[in-house]
Amino acid sequence: MMALLRTAQLDAGALAEVRRLLDAAFRGERFGDDDWRHALGGVHALVRNDSRLVAHGALVPRSFLHAGRPLRVGYVEAVAVHPAERRRGLGSAVMAELEDVVRREYDAGALSATEDGAALYRARGWLRWQGTAWALTPAGRIRTAEDDDAVFVLPAVAELDVTGELTCDWRTGDLW
Q1: Where are the beta strands (DSSP E) in the chain?
Q2: Mind listing the domains of the chain with CATH numbers?
Q3: What would the pLDDT profile of 34-44 be if each residue is shown by its tens digit?
């Protein structure tokens, strides 16, 4: 069963359950407190098998700059499927829900993918950013070249030149 809920609709128990799923799914990888905070404040696609949470993805609002204009971006965070439930289409189901929200509420979607996750996003029509990645920071605009190959976008309302510059807003932890 799929549910799409805002962070404010999740009680402390539901949030703890999401965090446990993320910790299990990212075991051996880096998923810290900043990553957790990045996943809050937007909408959550939650998949349950009976009463057990088996998949999750979050879409949070961010402000980007591209081609001299601001973009309201739905940024995908914390996409995870329980290790025992992988390869059953749950990640695609989560993404389909989040993509619908992007198309209804945002200028574009964006995310930062690992090499393992990139195939899922490419298969769903997300475009790898071919231009340069930047970030607005308290010290000014900085180049984030280490993120160039990891950024993917999903055009919605805005026209995007994927060979241009894309600048994300500031946040603690990973900027992308």
Answers
A1: 2-6, 43-49, 52-66, 69-81, 108-112, 127-128, 132-137, 140-143, 151-155, 165-168
A2: 2-168 (3.40.630.30)
A3: 999 999 999 99
